[in-house]
Fold this sequence. Notes:
By secondary structure, this protein is an alpha+beta fold. The protein has a single domain (7-82), classed as NE0471 N-terminal domain-like (2-Layer Sandwich), CATH 3.30.2020.10. The protein is 18% helix and 26% strand. The protein has helices spanning 33-36, 49-52, 72-82, and strands spanning 7-14, 17-22, 27-31, 56-58, 61-63, 69-70. It is globular, with a radius of gyration of 14 Å.
Amino acid sequence: MVDIPKIRKIQRLGSHHLRLWFAGGATGEWDFSGLARESGPMVAPFASPAYFDRVFLEDGALTWPNGFDWSPEALHADMAAAGGPGVRGAGSLTTAASRGEQGL
């Protein structure tokens, strides 16, 4: 059986940055500022940091009041590909094992 990553907790860090905790124990920070530079009716509100900060979790996915959501599977994969702790470039992901912690 394949584990589908779900986000279980978020922390708003300002300037379109979030710290994310995944159900499997991975955690990391991600820079979503590129979203604020996109155009189109669904992403135009993200130019406002106050709107971005209205993010909430719905079924383990980042979601905003206009219905825009971000796939936790894709975000987990992007963060894992970025590697390493802290924000580097677009973001990063660490696992409980890489931090020397027990799983959650």
